[in-house]
Amino acid sequence: MEVTYYEDPACIWCWAFEPVATRLAFEFRQTIKLRHVMGGLRDQPPVDVDFTVRQWQKASEISGMPFDTRTWQSHVNQTTFPACRAVKGAALVSPARAARLARRLSEAYFTERIPIDNLDAILQLASEVGFNPDVLKENIASGRAEEFFTRDRLEASRHGFGFPTTIFSTIKTESAVLLQGTVDYAVILAALKSLNTPKAKRQRFQDVPEDWKDLFKIHPRLTSTEIQHVTGLSADRVAARASQLGLHWTGIFYQREKTDHDTARAGLEAPPKLPGEHEPYGDEPASIGRKLEETDTLSGDLDTEGIRETSAAD
User: Fold this and answer.
1) Per-residue pLDDT tens digits for 272-312
2) Contact predicate 100/106, CB 8 Å
């Protein structure tokens, strides 16, 4: 099973979707192959900063994920393209660690007020996840990262996909299901069922050390909301288990190791409680998704007007 995920590190609704995406990655960790496509949200500042701030607030309320809106008081993100290029440049070295960089960029942007439209900031974040910043800088400067980023944009723009968009496809059945927006996990399961995914492929979380270890292999840092979504535990129970397992609470994330940066944040806020299941925010209700037709190819001419953030299925 291949899962193609159309995203942007600075996409509001992609960050809001992380609890569901993390649960999918955990429960089907031996079944799915995840392919990240950097669609490129925008190459200019937002037209209405106040509207964007309200969207951050709404996304936080719906998902339970942390959004620090104070970043807009000090810096208005000018473009999301440098972050996307960096992820593609990193993929030339290691696709797996490139996905980790994409996650780290989102963490920095939405929770740490770090400007990810700044190359120096991006290179620093890349070094934190194990990349040689000089190598990544060369991949960007040489145009190699731009080449692969352009390919991603072509693929995403062909059908005007919003972000996030997830496509589930199987080689065996030669069929696929497309989901748009921050759909609930039940919609994901329905999509997998429609593709005849065996129930036995789903590995639910068991509160045992091995499963905790596998969970933190997905992301080395996880929000309380993400952990609650995967484990089914309450915020208080997550905090208790984290203490027993020696996990460190940074004030935003749980992680295995403590850093100097985290020390300053620890204790600033309590882990949030998980909000209830919801209809994706948008003009139309969510659907299980649509099967892709033979004419729905995943490449084509660049049409950036089709790119947008979306919180609901179209």
Assistant:
1) 554 544 444 322 222 334 444 433 332 222 223 333 455 54
2) no
Indicate the burial class of 13 (C-beta count within 10 angstroms; 0-12, 13-18, 19 or more): buried
- 3-state secondary structure at position 221: strand
Nearest Cα neighbor of 112 from 273, 272, 309, 262 is 262
Before 164, cis peptide (omega within 30)?
A: yes
* Length in residues, the chain: 314
> What does the DSSP assignment read for 33-58?
EEEEEE----SS--S-HHHHHHHHHH
Q: pTM of the prediction?
A: 0.84
How far CA 281 is from CA of 5, 52, 313, in Å, comes to 19, 15, 9
Measure the CA–CA gap between 285 and 254, rounded to whole angstroms.
33
Question: Which residues neighbour 212 within 8 Å (Cβ) at sequence distance 6 or greater?
Answer: 241, 245
> Where does residue 267 rank: exposed (0-12), middle (13-18), buried (19+ CB within 10 A)?
exposed
Enter the tokens of residue 67: 């959004």
Task: List, for residues 93-109, the tens digit of each pLDDT value.
Answer: 999 999 999 999 999 99
Contact 169, 1 (CB under 8 A): yes
